[in-house]
From TrEMBL:
The keyword Nucleotide-binding applies. PROSITE patterns: ABC_TRANSPORTER_1, ABC_TRANSPORTER_2. This is Putative ABC transporter ATP-binding protein YknY. Its EC number is 3.6.3.-. Belongs to the ABC transporter superfamily. It comes from bioreactor metagenome.
Amino acid sequence: MEIIKMENISKLYKSGQIQVEALKDISFTILEKEFVSIMGPSGSGKSTLLNLVGCLDHSTSGTYELSGTMVDRLSDSKMSDIRNMFIGFVFQNFHLLPRMNAIKNVEIPLIYRGMNTKMRKELAENALELVGLKERMHHLPSQLSGGQQQRVAIARAIVGNPAIILADEPTGALDTKTGDMIMELFVELNEKKSMTIVQVTHEEEIAEYGSRIIRLVDGEIVSDVSSGGKSNV
Ligand code: ADP
Ligand code: ADP
């Protein structure tokens, strides 16, 4: 089943006389339960693409279908409903709230859904258990290592049971060994929990944890290859 379907997507940034075409007429689909890595040099359009996939921004032209819903022409508020329902985000620098302990951080997406306290606690504990950090749930981010903070952030991303995890350089702030542990967690979420994962990374070794690598150069897809060597273009 296709979960992400982009057709002829372009993104133009305009500021005064200056115009940048960050994405140039790109098309691709991602199936449910795929683990896809997006690579490319700085300025190639990776963040722009992730923002569009994550319903954080509108394309300039083209169509984007997310799990059967055409999202690109929705209002911002409808788009954020879709985003909250389908997508969990993981960032390079974790983006945890420093004054809240681990479990409170994980509960945040559930607060937006208006869930009651008891239910929130239960789901947040389960998510922290899944990432192997239940015993640290009352620690503040500053009392956790980088890898542990990223695991809390991953628990927050998955607590609402989204279909898709979008990760922007998830290992960028971590040493190699810790980064590998985070990738092993992604592989487990992908294989055991059937989550679709799309990550942006600069690192070839990290990209290879995915089963498919899409490469961007100057806003265009220059290659799209499955780990078995099968080309998708
Ligand atoms: P990457 O994530 O691969 O580094 P980006 O998607 O951030 O690439 O950027 C792609 C191109 O679009 C770059 O030329 C960048 O300068 C430009 N760009 C990105 N965001 C904006 C913006 N908000 N306004 C203007 N130009 C932008
Ligand atoms: P990354 O390291 O993820 O590639 P970037 O440094 O490309 O991030 O961009 C960081 C943020 O700044 C993005 O949200 C992007 O939209 C914005 N941005 C990037 N380039 C420009 C630009 N030329 N003008 C305005 N905003 C930009």
